[in-house]
Amino acid sequence: MNSDKRVRSVPFFNYPYVFTSQEEAFVKIVRDVGRRGAFIMQKDLQEFESNLAIYTGAKYAVGVGNATDALQVGLMAGGIGPGDEVIFCSHTMVATAAAIHFSGATPIPVEAGPDHLMDPKKLEAAITSRTRAIMPTQLNGRTTNMDSIMGIAKKHGLDVYEDAAQALGSKFKGQCAGTFGKASCISFYPAKVLGCFGDGGAVLTNDEETYQKILVLHDHGRDQSGEVIMWGMNSRLDNMQAAVLDYQLKEYDRVVERRRAVARHYKERLGQLDELVLPPGPDDDPDHFDVYQNYEIEAERRDELQAYLKERGVGTLVQWGGKAVHQFKRLGFNQSLPYTEKLFERMLMIPMNMSLTDDDVDYVCDRIIEFYHPH
Ligand SMILES: Cc1ncc(COP(=O)(O)O)c(C=O)c1O
């Protein structure tokens, strides 16, 4: 146990590390792509799309500008639009609901359950005659129980679109997040487990027809001959970002294993504290393989704990600025979701990233333990 009480800086996330951790290799990639002038829709992108599809087990992957666009393009390609309702879990980024909104459909928020993911019972209760699709968020690098979600979808004749922005490589019963439904998104925002040097995202789908529409929709509505055949967006993953991502994808399993080791470490040190509820550990349930995009705890006296840690150099974050999506009333939501609202008074994300050393993790744990048990 580390009993060193000197203040140590453990930032919540270390953005420069995204680049400096492998600076030489990255500079080489940038030079190579730059000298080839290969900026938009070139072979590096094609290779990355192909490797991403292989990695996840999806039939198709298409690089786009970001995961929000990926969701919107996926929904539009799947035929979701005005008059439709799409149910999502309110513990998510506003991007999930925004993608539904901009597809023309109405986003309907439902409660999270104790695992912070969509509560299947609340989902089923929210289905109406206008419901066309379900969009579960595979939050914090954990895949929802997809037996429940897919079972409900099948029973009611609905499509599923996964928001897997945070869940590349996460699995339920051996199947990767993002490959269960009609289409899904992955985000490559720099703080993601697989991050690029700006915005980036991908759509995954197993459906040939949806894939063909995505290809057209994300590139100005043009088909392969360049003919404009429908209204489209400009949302493409830059070739240089794709090259950087493809390089990192080769090391992705090692990165995930490190994050799982940190999660194990947190559980060993903090698991006995009655004042906390920890996320499921990496070895708790063989049905789930979690990649720990975030480590989101529930904490008694959360705000005090956050301030205490801040004073001692430890960065933490309350997800989405402390509000579930339905609490953004100016977007027109009028639902009350008491379980989720209560969660938002208790949840706190503690550091989970690749620059953390074991000593950093011990330092964070020591400070949390001494906050609740000062003597
Ligand atoms: C759950 C979730 N959905 C969607 C997004 C949007 O991703 P992007 O920033 O790539 O558009 C994010 C990004 O943080 C996210 O966490």
- Termini gap: 16 Å
Element string (H = helix, E = strand): HHHEHEHEHEHEEEEEHHHEEEHHEH
Strand content: 5-15%
Summed up, the helix count is 13
Instruction: Round the mean pLDDT to the nearest integer and report it.
Output: 97
C-alpha-based Rg, rounded: 21 Å
Report the principal-axis shape. globular
Largest sheet: 7 strands, mixed
Spatial strand sequence of the major β-sheet: 1-9-8-5-4-2-3
Q: Helix- and strand-based class?
A: alpha/beta
Bound compounds, each kind once, are: pyridoxal-5'-phosphate
Q: Uncertain segments of ≥5 residues (pLDDT<50)?
A: none
Helix content: 25-40%
Number of strands: 13
Key words describing this protein structure:
single chain; 375 residues; alpha/beta; seven-stranded mixed β-sheet; three-stranded antiparallel β-sheet; 13 strands; globular; binds pyridoxal-5'-phosphate
Account of the 3D structure:
With 375 residues, the chain is α/β, with parallel strands linked by helices. It is 39% helix and 14% strand. The strands form 3 sheets. The protein has a 7-stranded mixed sheet with strand order 1-9-8-5-4-2-3, sandwiched between helices. Helix 5 (94-103) links the parallel strand 2 (85-89) and strand 3. The protein is globular, with a radius of gyration of 21 Å. It binds pyridoxal-5'-phosphate. Pyridoxal-5'-phosphate binds next to helix 4 and helix 5.
